[in-house]
Amino acid sequence: MVKKLVKLSHFLPKTTRQALLRETLSLPWDLDDGVQFKFVTDKSEFMDAIRILHSAYVEKSYMSPDPLKIRLTPYHLMPSTLMAIAKIDGKVVATMSLVRDNPIGLPMEKIFDLTSLRARGEVLCEFSALAISPEYRGRGGSLLHSFFRFFYRYVKTWCGVDYFVVAVNPAMADLYEAFYLFQSCGSMVPCDSYQFVNGAPAIPLFLPLNNFEAELKEIYFKKSLRKNLFRFLQSSYANSDVYPSHEYFQIKSTILTPDFVQALRTEIPDIETRFTPRESLRIAQSLGSNSFSEIGNRRLKQTLRIQMNTSTRVCLEGATEGALVKVCDISLDGIKLFVGSKQKIQKGFQLIRVRLGPNIFCQVKLEAVWDSDQGYTGVRLLETDQEWKRFFHKLEAIAG
After folding, report:
1. 0.85 cut: is pTM over it?
2. In the chain, what percentage of residues exceed pLDDT 90?
3. Domains of the chain, earliest start first
């Protein structure tokens, strides 16, 4: 019904068309007890997910058949990718990934330029690799809405993302814009041949999250429960949504470790040859090795750096009060901040408060040591409190 409405309503104004599409919403408030949404936590779930992805993509001609009947992209092996699955009665039936900024870039950056967003210091995540087992595709809408809720609730609390982005087939663009309030970008021309999906067409869409809930509430608040996406995203399903336990803000996947990638070799013997030399090197470096062949065998000694997207207040040159700036990543003795290309931190020492988790704060004394034309500033930590030290001690233990 929804696909037919999309085709029939193209002659209508966009706002009218989207309002009609929202009336077709039927949100899955009554999921069966056996349905579960979770992040991939072991090799078996990972392999099931990339097999389902292969089946769906081959059927849609988004890829050529693979000898191992899997679709494995370099993003699947980047620790910054969050790979989720839906399970019904213990069986993996669907998968979707959220790809965060990483050294390879986002998948859609192969054809679309995101420089303007990055210049503002925005943190981006791309929805990617949605696939559903053939026998469950009749429930595709329910699974997509549930995946969106699963990712949104997690990202909102733990990852500090500024924008969701997605490259979708033109046939799906109206749905993403109508239901989830994604927006098109007038300066970006749709791509007629996106090689990441075997030459299928693609349209870039963006969802700024800073005011997302307010806009969602305005549109959906008075709608019935079955059509109310605002209330659906606020809801919590203790049985169906299974989140990992965290104390601190968490950007990276906990499963993508050197040992995990090493274990995949038994299932995917040609794993290293599936990527370009640049992709292999970036994967290896993100996992603490010099080359892909060394992953799991030899690790570099490197300073632990943690990606974050939280905020703090610092004194800027010429300002009379503290300004809110972004904390981009941190190490035991330094922080990388985004302050904007036309601003600089005041010289000398400052005492600031940094949020490390939903309810965890620490206090550090710092001084600026470098800045870049792109608006980033590096600061050296001169003094840290016990909470900061405890935070790093715990993360270093996890990193091994």
Report:
1. yes
2. 47
3. 2-256 (3.40.630.30), 259-294 (no CATH), 305-399 (2.40.10.220)
